[in-house]
Amino acid sequence: MANTKFKLISLFKRLRINPPTGQIRCNGNYTPPRYRPPHWYVPKERVMTNEFLTQDNKDFIEEVKQDKLALQCSVESPLVKSETQEQVQWNPFMRRVGLIARKIGNYPMWSKDGKKFQTTLLQVVDNHVIKYIPPENYDPMVIKNRKWKDKKTLGCLLVGSETVDPSTVTKDYSGLFSTVGMLPKKHLCRFMVSPEAKLQTGTPLFATHFRVGDYVDIRAKTIDRGFQGVMKRWGFKGMPASHGVTKTHRRPGNIGAGGEKARVWPGTKMPGHMGNSWRILRGVKVLRINTKHNILWMLGVGIPGETGAMCYVYDTVLPLRKLKTPPPFPTHPPADDLPLEYYDESIHRFEDNTINFEEI
Q1: Is the pLDDT assigned to residue 82 strictly greater than 60?
Q2: CB-based contacts of 197: which residues, under 8 Å, 6+ apart?
């Protein structure tokens, strides 16, 4: 018994596992993915039961929901507090809020010199500011051994996307929105922002928050591939399929477990679960914006997630691709006189002429 206890303690020390929480920190560069929801995310789904409501009660509840939805979707929403916010001049060290967008597919585009490239379409659906937490009250739950440098300098903006029926979510989750007079949102995200970039509760966010030519970072979950071998998960070459040793065509081979301490070292590339982990694609260029449907055309097809997945879009942190000209700060206000499309200067518009004939 004592020998078994000693072995478990030594295993915890080698893997740096905290037994109560089970958080693993490996010695190498590989960090095991976290599949559980974040700690601040209260349970959302509830067990659906028969409420035994009459038809009159159902009609009344639906009427109340439609009134609230029309209230928060209006251009001049009364949910937005009438407090006068001090106008601050933007500087490159300020951090703005981001958007929650849905990946809706790929689309080819052409440059003015005839070069074809692929883009990814992201649609910003029903984004509203739910809550602002000032820096002195923002105390995120982080791992102890990690320094929190921006704890006292940055606040937090809670943004929600896609309004849902309040009767389909739990009471605790719906309470996050009822305190601010809004209907529950299907997706929530926290963005750390500068105090000068705070927004009032109920402020709508649109695709015009960004401009064509800007570079953004996109955070999303990768496609869930399930259990995969080393060839698909890590890109191993494998053994020859026809000539060679039997039963080793798709095996990993030697994992370097010999020596004085014969064991599998943390971070060893082995078969296991692939995908369903958060990844960030940095420095993606915005090529085109549609103001009617709030769609962003992003350069490339490497955005994580399958079609229909949600992703978080915010200003890039890359030093050479940061914003150099003042953007809409803190965000672009609602407007009805905007053009339908914004194009980058390198993009060819199909309504323009492609061939010009000179008269002789």
Answers
A1: no
A2: 94, 95, 96, 97, 329, 330
Helix (H, G, I), strand (E, B) or coil at 196: helix
Contact at 8 Å (CB) between 99 and 313?
yes
pLDDT at 295: 95
The residue behind tokens 């020998």 is 3
**Spans of all domains in the chain:** 57-81+95-141+148-225+274-343
2.60.120.290, 2.30.42.10, 2.30.40.10, 2.40.30.10: CATH of 57-81+95-141+148-225+274-343: 2.40.30.10
CA separation for the pair 202, 197 (Å, rounded):
15
From residue 88, how far is each of 134, 155, 194, 199, 329 by CA, in Å?
17, 16, 11, 13, 9
Cα-only R_g, the chain: 26
Residue tagged 């349970």 (tokens): 43
159 pLDDT more than 70: yes
pLDDT band at 41 (very low <50, low <70, confident <90, very high): low
- What is the distance between the alpha carbons of residues 279 and 61, in angstroms, rounded to a whole number? 40
In 217-347, alpha helices (H): 230-233
Rounded CA gap, 230 and 270, in Å?
6
Do the beta carbons of residue 195 and residue 96 sit within 8 Å? Answer: no
Interval 49-80: pLDDT, tens: 777 888 888 888 888 878 877 776 654 554 55
How many other CB atoms are found less than 10 A from the CB of residue 178?
A: 12
Query: Cα 129 to chain center, whole Å?
Result: 16
Q: What was the pLDDT predicted at 161?
A: 92
Give the position of tokens 């070292």: 265
pTM above 0.70, yes or no: yes
Q: What is the DSSP letter of 305?
A: S
What confidence score (pLDDT) does residue 36 get?
61
User: Per-residue pLDDT averaged across 322-334, rounded?
Assistant: 89
pLDDT (tens digit per residue) in 211-234: 999 999 999 999 999 999 999 999
The total number of residues shown for the chain amounts to 360
| Number of neighbouring beta carbons within 10 Å of residue 138 | 16
